[in-house]
User: What shape does this take?
Amino acid sequence: MAALNKGFRLVRRGEVTVLQSPLLAQCPLTDHAFSTRLGGCSSGAMAALNTAFHTGDDRALVLENRRRLLQPFGYEPDAVVAGIQVHGTGVARVTAADRGRGTVPGNFLGQYDALVTTEPGLVLTAYAADCPILFLIEPQRPLIALAHAGWRGTLGGMAHAVITCLQNNYGVDPARLLAAISPCICPNCYHVGEDVAALFRRAGWGEAPYLEPEGPGKFRLDLSRINAAQLREAGIEDDHLAENSWCTSCRPDLFYSYRRENGVTGRMMAFLAIKPQRSRPL
Assistant: This one.
């Protein structure tokens, strides 16, 4: 399995280019992807595959971009479930009744940065333009989780929060889970001030390689490595963890970046779904 532990790889799917994790792809029960900005119909600062409504992009273009992203995997945009991401550690348990909560503005699930489900055919989604997204799969049963972990969520222990939910509500052994960390901003591009650095020091992440001085009052913060460490602390095995090797800020050809574009940009979508049960021919 170690050969599969290589983060995400570019894959062409229909009209779009996405990233997929070879580690997660070995699970036949699920579908997943992390979108790039390639292959969509949005323009300007949103060019081209913007998947989020809250960016100021035209709603019809966002829906078309989502269609282009999901259809090659056999899903329609009305299967999407999304929470209102508030950079917290709230976890929602998603059921069939929540299908479509996130399909249109104003119909989102609620203020949750992590979603968990056992329901086939639902498309759990999270949106980012620098923040890490955590993918979690129980490979031998229909159970998945997707979590947005910006700096506040990382500081609050999002990895622990979502795995604790899986343990308490579904009896999961964390050692069995497969986990992957999406592309996100690298520490060379992500600099924070003394106020944020002090918070991470108090939380136990004040040393290299997690936090390193860049200059007077400026520090490099490695959200990807902190999340990887937190996933291991929560029980994920080394050979079940695909760490990130992509920087969203370094690759304007592939990714939107909130930091690089000073907030005026689109969002990538991470999605994770349990494959729907298909009826067998008589």
About this structure: The chain has a mean pLDDT of 95. The chain is about 20% helix and 25% strand. The longest strand covers residues 268-274. The CA atoms of residues 18 and 166 lie 27 Å apart.
